[in-house]
Model the fold of this input.
Amino acid sequence: TDDRMDVFESSDNLMKELSLSTAVQILNSDIADKSGMFSIKGETLEQSGICKSERFANQPAAGNCSGFLIAPDKLVTAGHCITSVADCQNHKWVFDFANREEIVKTFSFSKDQVFTCTSIIERKKDVGAGADYAVVQLDRKVPGRSALKFRTGGKIADDAVLTVIGHPSGLPTKITAASDMRNNKNEAFFVMASDTYGGNSGSAVVDSRTGIVEGILVRGDTDYARTKDGCLS
Done:
């Protein structure tokens, strides 16, 4: 079962609230600025080669990574999403790329929803140790949104049930619930069963009961395979 939901489809008010503090990373070249209003140039999943039978195939897929606020002007994402100052400068972080009331075909954003990365405060990517994160300084404070709270000590419970909030395949925000623990033996990371894709990298992984951030989505299995028709499914 694919547990991804558009925001308006979720009945979990806590997760819907947390989704307000999540953002998508989009290349500058894929965002048009017209007198202070921004629009996205991305293709739909189907236009980018995904089979039309796939869920959300007709939705725009503009993003390449996800992130979430940990302070009014600071954001966390996966370390492999921002590898250099150039990466930082060549992307925007966009809030509310989401179907909050209904499914829409086109999105527009005000300047209060679009932000620039000005510096990388801290970054680590160590495959051996399992670390993969970056803390990003935004160009200004993000109004009207709360920083997410995260666990600062101890270890995630073996029976934790988790929710992922982010942008699978670069799509508008998806709330992916019912993610069960698969392996909690490593001290640096845990493995869960979750319907996540490329684009979810940097997503907040939160305890479904408390809303506390337990981790950052950074890796997963293969997303798609090419079919005999030539599309990806």
Observations:
- The first strand starts at residue 4 and ends at 6.
- The first helix runs from residue 13 to 19.
- The chain has two helices and 15 strands.
- The CA atoms of residues 39 and 108 lie 5 Å apart.
